[in-house]
Amino acid sequence: MFNIYIKPTELCNLKCDHCYIPLSSRENSFKMTPEQVDYILDQCLNFFSDLNKVNLIFHGGEPLLMGVGYYGKFLDKLKQNGVENIRVSFQSNMLLYNKEWKLFLKQNKASIGTSYDFFSNFRRLAGCTDSKKYFILWTQKIKQYQDDFRQRVYTITVLSKQNVKYIPDIIDIAEELGLNLKLNPLYNAGKIKADYKSFSLTPQEYGESLKIAYRCWQKYKNKGMVIEQCKDMESFVTGESSLTHTRCPYAGNCVGHIWCIDPKGNIYNCGCDVQLGGKYYMGNYKIGINKEKYIKAKAEDNQISLDCYECGICGGGCKLFRDKKTKKYLWCDSYKKLYKEVKNAFC
Ligand SMILES: C[S@@+](CC[C@H](N)C(=O)[O-])C[C@H]1O[C@@H](n2cnc3c(N)ncnc32)[C@H](O)[C@@H]1O
Ligand code: SF4
Ligand code: SF4
Ligand code: SF4
User: Whose CA is nearest to atom 1 of ligand 2?
Assistant: First the structure.
């Protein structure tokens, strides 16, 4: 299975303060043209002769801004090339969700994941200082989506100093709204960089917040709620899976499994890499994928610390967040804390 994150545009209809995409790109971004899309898919189809299962994740910026017609053409091209097994999802702020999108999603068996950072004022509508206004619109869209699909909505919540003390409330609200959660730490990127220390969590604080989340989740897990990091760690502790993927489902082993394509048609190892400096740039839609860069990136995936070889909890984490010298993973202590909490609950 290949996971291709496509950012057809970095334009966005929100002005989130924490967003790792520069404001200039959110206001004035390239839009990936249908011609580029054709080239990119050809490059992928040529590079991987066995590309018959694809997980397409449309990201951004705000992917719904491109309209349903754009994505229809995209999927037709893949099908014409014999790629039948395509799973499509969108990562969206939901503002543009409507009946037209409902129809498109149903026809293509696609889904939408969203984002909301409860008890934080990062997310807001353009020109609006009150972040509650967006929350009201967002909850209306969530309800509409649930009426249409009768399923929980996967929601990324960024944790920072602003909201970390509200974990129990966040989880209660998520249950009320019918959400599944992924609790991510704030990254040092975008506008927030200038004041990162005052907003960000330490690995210890993030670990404590995951422990609290794990305890609170017990009330709701039998009702079907998923908190991704908690469920994942539980599967690891109970032996259902051999590795956790708490930070990212591809942690420690992503090269060759995941690609990110930006609006100009540049190809990267992953979307986080693009925002954190683009170290793993692999080529673009015209020249194709550079095999040497690909091999180098694959080798770096495997350069984990000796401790990680022995520990195995998260496979050494993501290479973007490893210390250059020691190879220690930034969120190592957080996951060890969560691991201990889950293990104590079971053993
Ligand atoms: C860049 S947005 C693009 C998709 C869509 N516009 C959305 O907000 O869901 C993807 C995700 O990145 C998260 N994100 C943006 N900047 C971040 C940062 N500095 N630290 C952690 N997550 C961040 C957002 O909160 C969102 O969940
Ligand atoms: S986090 Fe998403 S919704 Fe917010 S500004 Fe960035 S791209 Fe737009
Ligand atoms: S580079 Fe890191 S965040 Fe990106 S896919 Fe790989 S492990 Fe995940
Ligand atoms: S030592 Fe830390 S980073 Fe390495 S596998 Fe264990 S938890 Fe993950």
Answer: 19
